[in-house]
């Protein structure tokens, strides 16, 4: 019997290692899920190798929110937008489930997060149990009102799960209910700590031996789904087999039904709990039966009392011999049981150490992989840094080459500027002329051989061409007189004009004396005559507003005052008229064609012939031929009257005098000037009428009388203009006329203009007023949105 027992015990060490169990946890992401995870960790981690899967079901994305707070169907957006939104939802859910994964990391337990996109939670969980072969599923108990008769979500999940999966329903950290798998149909549970009990009954060993053995065997077969039992449980099963063998050998007469003193309760309680508790319970029940019979051996008086007095002496001796034999075997079995118990404890300790070592090895492996990934990332960063450094080095080399080239260009420009500075110093010292002397070849090249495309205009004394000298735009005037260059007086006047510098006098850049050519600075906006009378070839330019005309009057007066008071001798222009007043950027005016000016004494000088335009010539100069500064004052008065009325100079003085006398000046005002201020305009008209008096002695002096009045009117106009521009939004101002648009239209360049201004512009030009690029078309589209805003602002 001892040999058979030893062979059975030795066979216990040859069992294969247990496989892992897949446990699924259905979580919703709430705080309730932490309770479920904590219960599952305490329940299943001590059992051995367990693989956890977190199942989270989120609804299918069917709508996408908009910035306005609304929703649109996902089928109505682009695929890339829908994919980006789904990815964002998935990342949010992953971040929410991250702190659940940390609970498993703290226990050093592997867990896999499975996100399921489905509107049916029950079907999704059931399908993934089948897909991932989940042996056990842990879910939270669903709350339900006492008045509700509908099934809860947890009950629906339990019913729909595959039959091979055991479903645990947890409520408030405890097991609420359980749906066993097909292989666990004979097991009953009580809460978390309830034990699975054997169905056998051993109240009377002598009468129920075969029944107990059959029931225990059935119970042991019913726990096959728990994989292979641990080593201590295998030893208990071996002891149970020994117990059954002993029962077969022992006679029924020596077993008392009331003897149940020896138990394995204290021994079985020292072993691990969990799913293996079934094995301990089976072993303990079997051992109860065995110890009951053993206890009868220790109480011979009880056996003898139960024996009939009529039993023969020989039979009594045989019984005593058997009893002694059984006592020896019992002591031997007890020793073997103690040894098996110690080996089971050692085996359990070694198993725990192996599991701990396995976890450490897995942790080290993860750290090694993590360090490997870090090394790869570091290598990629170093490679990227190398590429960036290489590009930077190439860029530095290019910059160095560019800087060297720029340095060479700068040296060339510096040498040129030094030469120009020396020329300027020489000019200031009187060693050279104050203007540049151009060669005839330079003049021809700058004007493209006097091409008609470059012709700006033609006057009584010459033709003006647009030219380019060293990337600088200038105006070249070719005088009609062929012998003017040989005239000493022309040379003298050129020298004088080249020395004149005033903000409102056209600058003489240079000349070609041999061919009677004068080079002036170029004025972008043409002459005052073009803007006032809207000539056919200049209709694209917007009209001048009244505040610009007030300013121009003051600018012309300041330039004349400068000429008249020049030292050592004053200068008379002799041909002041709107055609000789040129406008630059922002309509800044400058007096041009000063080449016919005459140097006079402080009073006057007599000339041989009349020079100038008839309507602007001083009447006294026509009668006497004497030139004086008052001649320019008369012409200035005519120019101012034209600024106010926008009418030709013939009989204009008489018309304005009559209108002022009859208080009907507003009828003569130029409508293109805008809303004229009546009082200030009348003051300007009166000072202009004084300048056009027939006798010189009745005309005001330019510096002392005219300029103060014009300066006051100019300041008033500037303030009014600033208020108008500040009060009106920038988008309401037309880029051409610089006034608030009354009929805004969008042109082909995409900019908005006033309809009247842009229509006149595109009649003469095909380019954009803003970008100066070719217009793709000349269609105008009304900008009703801007018009509505302008009308609201005006109201």
TrEMBL record:
Ranges of biased composition (kind: Low complexity): 195-218, 292-306
SMART domains given in the database record: S_TKc, Ubox
Source domain of life: Eukaryota
Function: Functions as an E3 ubiquitin ligase.
Protein name: RING-type E3 ubiquitin transferase
Pfam family, one: U-box
Gene3D superfamilies according to UniProt: HUPs, Phosphorylase Kinase, domain 1, Transferase(Phosphotransferase) domain 1, Zinc/RING finger domain, C3HC4 (zinc finger)
EC category: transferase
Lineage: Eukaryota, Viridiplantae, Streptophyta, Embryophyta, Tracheophyta
């Amino acid at each position: 019997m001892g040999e058979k027992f030893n062979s059975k015990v030795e066979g216990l060490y040859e069992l294969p290692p247990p496989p892992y169990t897949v446990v699924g946890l259905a979580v919703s992401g709430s705080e309730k899920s932490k309770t479920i995870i904590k219960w599952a960790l305490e329940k299943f981690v001590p059992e051995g190798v367990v693989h956890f899967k977190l199942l989270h079901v989120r609804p299918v994305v069917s709508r996408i929110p908009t910035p306005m707070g609304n929703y649109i169907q996902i089928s109505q957006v682009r695929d890339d937008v829908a994919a980006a939104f789904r990815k964002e939802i998935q990342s949010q859910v992953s971040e929410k489930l991250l702190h659940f994964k940390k609970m498993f990391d703290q226990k050093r337990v592997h867990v896999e997060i499975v996100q399921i996109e489905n509107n049916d939670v029950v079907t999704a969980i059931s399908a993934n149990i089948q897909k991932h072969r989940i042996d056990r599923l842990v879910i939270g108990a669903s709350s339900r009102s006492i008045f509700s008769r509908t099934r809860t979500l947890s009950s629906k999940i339990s019913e729909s799960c595959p039959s091979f999966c055991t479903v645990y329903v947890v409520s408030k950290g405890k097991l609420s209910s359980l749906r066993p798998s097909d292989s666990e149909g004979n097991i009953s549970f009580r809460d978390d700590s309830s034990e699975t009990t054997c169905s056998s009954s051993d109240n009377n060993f002598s009468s129920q031996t075969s029944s107990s053995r059959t029931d225990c065997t059935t119970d042991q077969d019913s726990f096959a789904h728990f994989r292979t039992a641990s080593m201590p449980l295998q030893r208990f099963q071996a002891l149970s087999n020994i117990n059954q063998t002993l029962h077969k050998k022992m006679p029924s007469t020596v077993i008392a039904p009331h003897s149940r003193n020896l138990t394995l309760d204290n021994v079985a309680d020292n072993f691990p709990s969990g799913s293996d508790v079934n094995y301990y319970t089976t072993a303990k029940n079997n051992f109860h039966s065995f110890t009951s019979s053993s206890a009868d051996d220790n109480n011979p008086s009880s056996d003898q009392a139960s024996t009939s007095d009529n039993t023969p002496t020989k039979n009594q001796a045989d019984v005593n011999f058997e009893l002694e034999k059984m006592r020896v075997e019992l002591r031997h079995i007890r020793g073997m049981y103690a040894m098996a118990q110690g080996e089971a404890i050692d085996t359990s300790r070694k198993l725990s150490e192996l599991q701990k070592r396995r976890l450490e090895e897995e942790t080290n492996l993860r750290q090694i992989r993590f360090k490997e990934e870090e090394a790869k990332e570091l290598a990629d960063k170093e490679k990227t840094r190398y590429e960036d450094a290489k590009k930077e080095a190439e860029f530095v080399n290019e910059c160095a080459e560019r800087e060297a080239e720029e340095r060479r260009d700068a040296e060339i420009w510096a040498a040129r500027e030094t030469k120009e500075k020396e020329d300027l110093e020489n000019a200031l010292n009187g060693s050279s002329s104050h203007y540049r002397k151009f060669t005839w070849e330079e003049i021809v090249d700058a004007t493209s051989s006097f091409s008609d495309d470059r012709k700006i205009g033609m006057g009584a004394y010459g033709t003006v061409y647009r030219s380019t000298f060293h990337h600088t735009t200038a105006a070249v005037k070719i005088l009609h007189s062929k012998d003017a260059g040989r005239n000493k007086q022309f040379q003298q006047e050129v020298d004088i004009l080249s020395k004149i510098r005033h903000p409102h006098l056209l600058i003489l850049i240079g000349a070609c004396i041999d061919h009677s050519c004068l080079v002036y600075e170029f004025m972008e906006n043409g002459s005052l005559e073009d803007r006032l009378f809207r000539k056919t070839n200049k209709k694209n330019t917007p009209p001048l507003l009244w505040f610009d005309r007030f300013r121009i009057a003051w600018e012309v007066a300041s330039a004349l005052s400068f000429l008249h008071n020049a030292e050592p001798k004053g200068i008379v222009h002799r041909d002041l008229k709107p055609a000789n007043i040129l406008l630059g950027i922002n309509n800044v005016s400058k007096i041009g064609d000063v080449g016919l000016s005459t140097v006079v004494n402080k009073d006057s000088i007599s000339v041989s012939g009349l020079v100038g335009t008839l309507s602007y010539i001083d009447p006294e100069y026509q009668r006497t031929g004497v030139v004086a500064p008052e001649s320019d004052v008369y012409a200035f008065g005519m120019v101012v009257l034209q600024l106010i009325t926008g009418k030709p100079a013939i009989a204009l003085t008489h018309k304005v005098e009559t209108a002022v006398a009859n208080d009907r000046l507003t009828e003569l005002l130029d409508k293109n000037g805008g809303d004229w201020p009546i009082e200030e305009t009348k003051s300007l008209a009166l000072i202009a009428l004084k300048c056009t008096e027939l006798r010189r002695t009745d005309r005001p002096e330019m510096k002392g009388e005219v300029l103060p009045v014009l300066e006051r009117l100019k300041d008033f106009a500037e303030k009014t203009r600033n208020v108008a521009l500040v009060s009106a939004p920038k988008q309401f101002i037309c880029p051409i006329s610089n006034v608030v648009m009354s009929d805004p239209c969008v042109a082909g360049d995409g900019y908005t203009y006033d309809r009247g201004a842009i229509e006149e512009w595109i009649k003469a030009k095909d380019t954009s007023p803003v970008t100066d690029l070719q217009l793709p078309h000349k269609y105008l589209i009304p900008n009703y949105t801007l018009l509505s805003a302008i009308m609201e602002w005006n109201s």
